[in-house]
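#help-structures

NK: newbie question. if I give both the sequence and a SMILES, will the prediction place the ligand too? trying with zinc ion
OV: yes, paste both and it writes out the complex. here, I ran yours:
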Amino acid sequence: MHELSLLEGVLSIIEDNADTQGYTSVKKVCLEIGALSCVEPEALRFGFDIVMKNSVADGATLDIVTMPGQAICQQCGCETKVFELHTPCPDCQSFSLDIQSGLEMRVRDLIVN
Ligand SMILES: [Zn+2]
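OV: that's the protein plus ligand as structure tokens.
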């Protein structure tokens, strides 16, 4: 389950932030997941409490926002939103979409005490 290693990455971002911003506990973590990232929100929720235990984010609630991906069609040049990989261009039906975003996961917001 690669969600656990993603969450460990999230935790290190939170801890770095806690150091620089000087807070000691996090109330809420909001994660943004690209629709093409293959991250399972359920797996994230499942792993969150385990990974955050005994950290500054112990007991924090988790909010997950899924963002559609953005792609540019290499055939006709149109920009389109994509919700899964291997979708055709809505204009010309070409499969040569150049994915611009949607593969990543990032920390969108932290609510601290
Ligand atoms: Zn196209």
